[in-house]
Write a structure and sequence with these properties.
It holds the Pfam family Flavin_Reduct. The protein is α+β, with helices and mostly antiparallel strands and 158 residues long. The chain contains four helices and nine strands. The chain has one domain: Electron Transport, Fmn-binding Protein, Chain A (Pnp Oxidase, Chain A), CATH 2.30.110.10. It has a seven-stranded antiparallel beta sheet. Strands 6-7 form a two-stranded antiparallel ribbon. It is globular. The two termini are 13 Å apart. Bound molecules: flavin mononucleotide. Flavin mononucleotide binds next to β2, β4, α2 and α4.
Length: 158
C-alpha cells in the first residue's frame, strides 16, 4: 500500500470535534475526540474510539458510560482544554462548568448540545478501543453550528 496515499485518503474523512465526558471511579474526566459517529437509529447507537491506555479509555471501560458534548464552531478553547492527558496536567475542568445527569458523565454547560450513552459493545481490535454506546439521554442548550475538526487546523487520522 502507498502509505502517503493512505494517509491523505483517510484524512479526507470529514469530522466534527467533541468533548467526551467520562466517569473515572467517583471522579470525572473528559477528552477531545473526532472519532465519533452515529451507527443506528433504532436503537440510537454511536461509536467512539478511545486511545488504549488513556485515563478516559480505562474510565469508559470500567464505568460502562460516557457523554458526548457537541461543541459550537469557534469554541477552540474548550476543545483545546481537553486534549492533554489528565495524568500529565491534572484536572482539566478548571473553571469550565459541568453537571451530570443519568450516567454521571460530565456535561459541559457551554456545549451546544449533549447526549449520554451506556456502553453496549466493545471492540479491542486496533490501538484504540471502539465503544458502541446506546444513547439513553440527551439535551440541547442552544441552537448553533457544530464545530468541525478542520477549523482547528489539526489532524487525528491517517
Ligand atoms: C485533533 C485531535 C483529535 C483527537 N481525537 C481523539 C479520538 O478520537 N480518540 C482518542 O482516543 N483520542 C483523541 N485525541 C487524543 C486525546 O484528546 C488525548 O489522548 C487525551 O489526552 C486523552 O485524555 P486522558 O489522557 O485524560 O484520558 C485527539 C487529539 C487531537 C489533537
Amino acid at each position: 500500500m502507498d502509505e502517503q496515499a493512505k494517509k491523505t485518503a483517510l484524512r479526507g474523512i470529514t469530522y466534527g470535534l467533541y468533548v467526551i465526558g467520562t466517569k473515572v471511579g467517583d471522579d470525572v474526566n473528559a477528552f477531545t475526540a473526532n472519532w465519533v459517529t452515529q451507527t443506528s437509529f433504532s436503537p440510537p447507537l454511536v461509536v467512539v474510539a478511545a486511545k488504549k491506555g488513556t485515563t478516559s479509555c480505562d474510565g469508559i471501560k470500567s464505568s460502562g458510560v460516557f457523554s458526548v458534548n457537541v461543541l459550537e464552531t469557534g469554541q477552540k478553547d474548550l476543545a483545546f482544554a481537553f486534549f492533554k492527558p489528565v495524568s500529565r496536567v491534572g484536572n482539566k475542568f478548571g473553571d469550565i462548568e459541568f453537571y451530570t445527569e443519568q450516567t454521571g458523565s460530565p456535561i459541559l454547560r457551554d456545549a451546544l448540545s449533549w447526549f449520554e450513552c451506556k456502553v453496549v459493545d466493545v471492540n479491542e481490535r486496533g490501538d484504540h478501543t471502539i465503544f458502541v454506546g446506546e444513547v439513553v439521554n440527551a439535551g440541547v442548550h442552544r441552537q448553533g453550528d457544530p464545530m468541525t475538526l478542520r477549523e482547528t487546523g489539526l489532524n487525528y487520522g491517517g
